[in-house]
Amino acid sequence: MELRVHGVFGASAETIVDHPIVVRVAGDRHAGFYRVREGLGAAGGAPAGVVVEAYRWGTLTAGAAVRTASMLVLLPFMLSNLAVWMRPMLADRGGVLGGLCRLLAGSLTVAFTLALVGVGMNLTGWQCVPYAECRDGRPYLSWLVALPTGPRLAVLALMPLLALRVFWVVGKRSADAFEGFGSAPPRGRLLESTGSLAAPGIWHDEQMTSWLRQIHVGLGAGTVGVSLVVAVSHGRWNPVAVGLLVLAAGLVAFCAVVLAVTVPARWAGPLRRTVWILTAVATVSSLGYAVSRREVPVQAGQMPGHEGSAAGLVAAQGLMLVLIAAVTLARQHARPAGSRALLGGLGTPLVAAMSVTVASAYTATLVFRTADQLDRGRIPDPIRSNPPALGPLEPPVAYWWAALAGLAALVVVSAALAVTRPVARRRRRAYAQRVVEQDFPDAPAEATPRLDAVRSTIARSFVTDELGPTFVAFFVISSVGLATVALDLIGIGPTQIAARLSRRHDTLAVLTAYVTDVGIWIISLLVIGLLILGYRAYRSPETRRLVGVLWDLGTFWPRTVHPFAPPCYAARAVPELTRRVSALAAQGPVVISGHSHGSVLAAATVLQLPPEALPHVALLTHGSPLHRIYARLYPAYLGDQALRDLGDRIGWRWRNLWRDTDPIGGPIFADPGLRPCLPPAAATVDVRLRDPRSVVVEMPDTVPPPLERHWPYHTQPEYREAVRNLVDDIRAGAPG
User: Fold this and answer.
1) In what order do the strands lie in the sheet with 32-36?
2) Quick one: average pLDDT of 193-209?
3) How many CB atoms lie within 10 A of CB 134?
4) Would you say residue 479 has pLDDT above 80?
């Protein structure tokens, strides 16, 4: 049996099997196993005597248009979830790094909640509704002026609470789609499932996700409660207000503590009930208190406490990013020598910083565009404030700094690309020239145009390997941006600091205001572009396919950090493949053939197979990013040591086909630094295919052979030979 697993492009079953008529033999319409209908011939590329079966899983991620479009909104949550899987080593003493990543993910939920509080309670309820010029011609706001300030803010506080409920429902429904496929983790295990990919229950993430959903809803509800109590108290504190503030703030603190520690499974039930009770009590009591506060004096400016909350959140995120980077650096000595991890193993703080940056872009765009709409296109800034009668519709200072930092990051990253691109291009062209000279030493003169095309293709295929300096630049600018935390805390915006430095409110302050406005619009346009991409994904199958490719790569890992991240399709795919391969292996030899990202699923499947199935299984990977991408991004889980363990697990019955023209796939064990640590059998794993097979026209053809690049591999004679050899190896080594 040859079991083919496709990559991220979501190919049809007919394409995978290379036959026009197939029938599903297991699974369902979302993910199923297909064969050529009996009596209608053999699958394309199948050696004699080998039955081909295809596993099609693409619709788990890119099948539904609504699901694909909605995933763009969840991008910051997905990035925060990826960060913990990019740790440089498997061991996490005391769960410190995991706890910090969970805390940072919790801060993203607070950030989105505060943005909704800012839109509803601060900009609308506190700054706009009291002014006739702002609510004029807006019947959807005019009715709010009849409500006293306390009840009005209580009504608008329902908006972020409703959003939390929507996220809860979406997260629960997405998790239900993959329930029942993986085995539950052993009893008494910790909730955090970030062990080795060979650990039992690693793909059963529902327990952890359900736990995190309750905690994040508690964080959001506590944030709304604190904002509401502080706003309606407004300098008139009484014992009830103090008690409610302590209750809401205590809920936020309690949720932060349980996120920071690694919770044993036996404690999950009692703690979850405690969080639920605290959330219900804090929410109902804060809303009831706000309704009772009918005499709340309204003053110009922002809602009391909102500026400080936004600044405090930025400060907390900056501190957590510094701690994540420090812990990651401190543990670099445990990383295996010669490992080519991204940025030397700093992928975790880098992606964590990216999640905060994207979340800041989303929230700043939401707040600024709402202020612009309420202000009828005359969005204010510290230089051009609104007329006194209209009221100062101003977002917190933290969003101004976010806009300026976003513009700076874009400029620095663009400059890094401009500086490093020429050097990288020369290096890639030199490598391509060596490959062409090696493969086609005697090419005739008439083949020169074809040789130029081959060189160009090889050079372009290594673009992804040259992005390191860009990531470094992004990481540096993100770190430098933390310097604005102190200015956020004291409420000084970019324009004010420019005015103080110039000692007068003229040229430098005005220039800073315009630069900040440019940053706001650039961030807004980028976010709007993502929304347009989401709309296109809803309407266009081709765009949906592109978005689905990105999410196939980003949602491979279980959700152990943020519960609102897109669901992990591997939670179904890997257990389902494991179950199917185990059943087939009981009947005879099975070659798992994984193309592109399918090779990652195939490797994860082998690591989960029971011992009795392993002697009957071999692995064939082609166009595989296992070492080129995954070993660098996820060194603790699919790094060099994990790949060696994978080979040992199947007795090195493994072939990996790759081409220099392939922009995704590459060799697994070609690094010279790894060879002393590998057994002799590892030398047979990597099989390089020359592409194209020739640069001249070979009779009886009329054109030169095509450049195959990333697809297909199964049409090549080396593929069929590899399948035959692996089947023979299984039969020679299998017991009985």
Assistant:
1) 22-27, 32-36, 52-56, 2-5, 590-595, 617-622, 654-658, 686-688
2) 80
3) 22
4) no
Residue 236 CA to residue 577 CA, distance in Å, equals: 63
Torsion of CA 293, 295, 301, 304, to 10 degrees: -30
Report the predicted TM-score, pTM, of the whole model to 2 decimal places.
Answer: 0.87
For 596-688, strand residue ranges (E) read: 617-622, 654-658, 686-688
Residues 73 and 96: their CA atoms lie apart, in Å, by 29
Instruction: Tell me the range of 34-38, 64-68, 511-515 where mean pLDDT is highest.
Output: 34-38
pLDDT for 126-170, tens place per residue? 888 888 878 888 888 888 888 988 999 999 999 999 999 888 887
7: left (phi over 0), alpha (psi -120 to 50) or beta: beta
335-366 residues labelled b (16+ CB within 10 A) or e (exposed): beeebbbbbebbbbbbbbbbbbbbbbbbbbbb
Report whether 133 contacts 242 (CB < 8 A). no
User: Is 402 exposed, middle or buried, given 0-12, 13-18 or 19+ CB atoms closer than 10 A?
Assistant: buried
- Alpha-carbon gap, residue 730 to 581, rounded angstroms: 14
Burial of 298 (0-12, 13-18, 19+ CB in 10 A): middle
- pLDDT of 722 reads 96
Q: Residue written as tokens 């990919």?
A: 197
What is the rounded distance in angstroms from the CA atom of residue 103 to the CA atom of residue 393? 31
